[in-house]
Each structure stands twice: as structure tokens, then as C-alpha cells.
Write the C-alpha cells for this entry.
Amino acid sequence: MSLLVVGLSHRSAPVSVLERAALAADTQAKLLQDTLAAEPAAEAAVLATCNRIELYADVDKFHAGVAELSTLLSVHCGVGIDELTPYLYVHYEDRAVHHLFSVACGLDSMVVGEGQILGQMKDALALGQELHSAGRLLNDLFQQALRVGKRAHSETGIDRAGQSLVTFGLEQLAAGGPVEPWASGKRALVIGAGSMSSLAATTLARAGVVELVIANRTIDRAERLAAALADQTGPGLTARAVPMDEVPGELSRADLTVSCTGATGLVLTGEAVATAVAERAGESFLLDLAMPRDIDPAAHRVDGVRLVDIETLAEASADAPMAADVDRVRGIVSEEVAAFGAAQRAAHITPTVVALRTMAADVVASEIARLDGRLPGLDDKQRAEITQTVRRVVDKLLHAPTVRVKQLAGEPGGAGYADALRELFDLDPQAVAAVSRADSTDPGQERA
């Protein structure tokens, strides 16, 4: 089986395609279930963010896998395969590992170096574990990717090179300046209470807004977020929650609005924005971080409105981050890809080594039983000494070749050593397969 990823992102597709292809949470689950039901895939995981959709799978056939995964993405994204195909990219084996590790470090993000992708990757792994679609390979892969991302952020200055999409968007609204003091003293409205909205609300609270209103379809979540913000920031901030039907009124009072919901249609129409602006004095700042968009692009044409959305951010993200830090992170990624490949190749031979040692133990047991029949006069001490001696001889004979074959298997091109070992010792393929099946039943929980 081999690792394959098929996907599209802000680097390969225009925003108009990305927002149409956005996957809701329940659609992601159905995509994973259908991927497992497809013949080429044994494991699957989906990484879906506001600017990327990627389907990872352990497949037994490359071309059939690419065709099947592409079709599944098309069906669940609701974008025709002929329209979607030109924007898809494909990575296989080590290139797929390299791609995911680069994504984890923020090298492939719209804002290079942002760290929010790590949380999104943890969510992708958690969904795969919950649905049992992530087996040994994808558990190991995503957990290692999380460790690589954390290592990149702790060992380099990539955090200084990039910011979260929230901070970057707010800086664009502030004409490229820092969020603080630009946001200080403003009234802010945040629509949505998910992870991105929570990050936006926290960022604005720390930047010194005097009023923060959280609107959400589930009012309980909005109230919890508002209460948490009030506790964290103290009496200088008024934070409260409102239902979605009060958004038009709050929009007319807010100096700054950030929207990031999971809605499939527009949350704010151009007409609603125009009406709200007409009822207030001063400029209105709108930040749309949703995919698909929450705010009608027609709001760009409303006098007194400055709107920044995902498309605007994609155009503004071309500024080069700190080159030295990016180069160091790329070095970390290459190093970790090599280590992951070596570990996977070494692990591939482990069932064969276990099966060999099991066969050797069976041979020892059989010979000791035969010896008991031929020398019935042996007492327990003599029998134990003979048994221990035979076992030591077998262990010593097997030690060097099994250790060495694991080392060789971890090197590039080492996959064939397992086949050679099975052939040389005439191992039962079913015995090796049984060890592999037993090992794969406990893929492990997150160790990152």
C-alpha cells in the first residue's frame, strides 16, 4: 500500500472555485466513508480549511487511486470533475509526506508561517480516528506532521515571518499597519463562534476594542465565548452575545465586523451592508474569513465600506517572509521526510522479523519436545539448561541478520529485504500477514 494525496488549494485554484468546493463537517465524514468503500483505498483522511481541501489515502494502485480520489472530491464538493481536474494536484509516497509536512509548518499557507493549520490538522486526525478511517499509516503520518510543525515553530523564527489569517486580514483593513492601536476604542461585531471567529474575537479584545458583540446561530456558544473574553480582558471591554436575527442592527453600530461562519449562502448581502452604513457615521470595516464567502462582494462598491475577504488576502499575501527562516524550515521538512520514510520502511519489515522469530521459537519447542521423548531420564534442571542453551544459540544466530535487515530496510530501496527474508527462510506468508493485521488493530492515539 502507498500514500497518495489529491487536493486543491489557494495555490492551484482561484477563490471562486475554492468557495464552491468548500466541505461542511458532515460532508467530510461522508467523503471519508465513501473513500474507504472505494476499492483502491485502505485508509483515508481529509484536511479541509478555508483555502485547501486535500484527501489523503493509503492506496494499492496509483492510477486507479488518483482517478477514484479525484472523482470522490468532485462528487462531495459539488464541482464537476471536468471543471475541477485542472486545479487538482497529486503527490505520491515521499512527495505526499513532504507536502503534508510543509503544510504543517505553514510553508504552503496563504500567510506563510501561520500556526492555525496545526489545529486544523489535529481536527483532521481526530475525525479520521473517530470514523476509524485513519489506520497505522495515516495516524503515524499526521502525528509526525504535527510534531514537525511544532518543531519548525520552536526552532526557527517562522512565527515572525507569518501571522494567523485573522491578524493578516485585520492588518489589511488597517492599511498594512499593526492591529493595535488601529482597533483600539472601536466597536466590533464577530459573526460566528467557531475556531476562526474565536481567534478573531480574542485578537480584537487584546487589541483594545471597547465593545465586542458575538453573533451565532447557537446562542449558547456565543454566550460562552463572550463570557470567556470578558473574564480574560477585565472591565475595559464590554462583551455580549446576540442571536443572528439581531445582526443587521448590530452591523449599523459596529465600526468593525469580522464574519466566519459555516453557512453555505451569504450572511450579509450587499443591500444589508448598504442599509447599515447609511444608518451610521464613519467608515465601516468588514473582514470576511469564510469559505464560501459570508459577505456579498458587492459590499466593495458601497460608499464608506472597506471590505477584505479571502480573495483580497490571496492577492496581498505575496509579500516575501523572512527568507532565512523559511530556508531553515525547508531543511527541517526534508530531514523529517527522510526520517519518516526510513521509519516506515523499517516498520514494514517488522512483521517478517516477528514471524521469523516465532518460527524459530516453534522449532526450538519442537526439538525440545523430541528430546524429551528420546531422553526421558532428564531431570527438570537438566531439561531447563538444555532448553536455555538451544534458545541462546538460536537467538545469537538470528540477532545479527535481523538487526542488520532492519537497518537495511530503513534505507532507500530497502523495501525488498522483507521479501528476501521470507524467501530465504521459507516463511508462511499467512503468518506474516497475521502479524501485520494484529499490529494494525492498534494504530495508537495522538502522541504529538
Remarks:
- The beta strands are 2-9, 41-49, 52-59, 89-92, 187-191, 211-216, 238-243, 256-259, 284-288, 305-308.
- The two ends are 24 Å apart (CA to CA).
- The domain at 165-316 is CATH 3.40.50.720 (Rossmann fold).
